[in-house]
């Protein structure tokens, strides 16, 4: 029986029970998973994804009351913009070592942190973005049961930035893993979108994709358009820097915590 390779363009299309087997990769290129990778690479102790602003604030209060020695930072966005009273927004460039080193970051975003809630029954959940693409692929090459690429989308709808990354993973797994996969329809569509966006040698990985080239594709997405309208176009370029980091943040479904 061939291993399954599934892409879900939005979380609502994924069956949480199906995610129990194999490895799940949560994807929110613009911007949550990109930001989480930046945070872990900068030395954050952990990132805790929360569904709501209220949940994040409540957890921060509990941590402050029970452990006054740990630095706790509230972070996130709604409609692209930083949340009033929070320490950080959702721009990757904010997560520098001098800001987040050894801190616990409690993060809530419009789309990305919601996707992690769908994975609470999964065995293994990775945080994926272009900035740690090779680290993600290396882990998936070792998965022989099932791979589930869970795109966060934007407000319940498909967004091209997420499915492009999913398509890159599908394409590279098929080319380089040595395995044959059973693809769902969304995986085939994502792969073809990737191949249409980048002709060889870029799509195959034989030549590195310059950030400017990838950023041009990410701008042409629903999430990219919202960031541009909000005056945050520089975040798109930050999300387009392939393999900037080698870390592989992992989400623990039991504790709800992401660590490096």
Structural class: alpha/beta
Biggest sheet statistics: 7 strands, mixed
Number of strands: 11
The N- and C-terminal alpha carbons lie at a distance of: 33 Å
Radius of gyration in whole Å, from Cα? 17 Å
Shape: globular
**What share of residues is helical?**
25-40%
Query: Which strand order does the major sheet show?
Result: 9-1-8-2-7-10-11
- Fraction in beta strands: 15-25%
| Helix/strand order, N-terminal first | EEHEHEEHEHEHEHEHHHHEE
Q: Uncertain spans, ≥5 residues at pLDDT below 50? A: none
- Count of alpha and pi helical runs: 10
- Mean pLDDT, to the nearest integer, reads 96
Description:
By secondary structure, the chain is an alpha/beta fold. The protein is 37% helix and 19% strand. It contains ten helices and eleven strands. A seven-stranded mixed sheet has the order 9-1-8-2-7-10-11. A four-stranded mixed sheet has the order 3-6-4-5, with helices on both faces.
Short account of what is shown:
The protein is of the alpha/beta class. 37% of the residues lie in helices and 19% in strands. Strands 9-1-8-2-7-10-11 form a 7-stranded mixed sheet.
Give the SSE map.
Blueprint: E1 4-8, E2 23-27, H1 32-41, E3 46-49, H2 53-66, E4 71-78, E5 81-82, H3 97-100, E6 103-108, H4 112-117, E7 124-128, H5 133-141, E8 146-151, H6 160-176, E9 182-183, H7 185-197, H8 211-219, H9 222-229, H10 233-239, E10 250-252, E11 257-259
């Amino acid at each position: 029986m061939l291993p399954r390779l599934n892409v879900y363009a939005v979380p609502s299309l994924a069956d949480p029970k199906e995610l129990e087997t194999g490895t799940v990769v949560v994807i929110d290129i613009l911007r949550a998973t990109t930001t989480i990778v930046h945070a872990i690479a900068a030395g954050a102790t952990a990132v805790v994804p929360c569904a709501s602003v209220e949940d994040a604030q409540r957890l921060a209060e509990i941590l402050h009351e029970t452990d006054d020695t740990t630095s706790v930072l509230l972070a996130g966005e709604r409609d692209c913009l930083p949340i009033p009273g929070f320490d950080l927004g959702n721009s990757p460039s904010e997560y520098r070592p001098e800001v987040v080193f050894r801190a616990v970051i409690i993060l809530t975003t419009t789309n990305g942190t919601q996707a992690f809630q769908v994975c609470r029954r999964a065995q293994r959940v990775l945080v994926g973005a272009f900035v740690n693409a090779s680290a993600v692929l290396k882990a998936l090459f070792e998965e022989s049961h099932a791979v589930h690429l869970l795109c966060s989308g934007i407000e319940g709808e498909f967004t091209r930035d997420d499915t492009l990354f999913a398509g890159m993973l599908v394409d590279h797994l098929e080319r380089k893993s040595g395995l044959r996969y059973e693809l769902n329809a969304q995986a085939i569509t994502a792969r073809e979108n990737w191949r249409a966006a980048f002709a060889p040698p870029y799509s195959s990985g034989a030549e590195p994709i310059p950030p400017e080239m990838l950023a041009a594709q990410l701008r042409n997405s629903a999430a990219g358009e919202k960031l541009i309208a909000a005056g945050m176009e520089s975040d798109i370029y930050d999300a387009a820097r392939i393999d900037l980091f080698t870390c592989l943040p992992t989400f623990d479904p039991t504790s709800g915590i992401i660590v490096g």
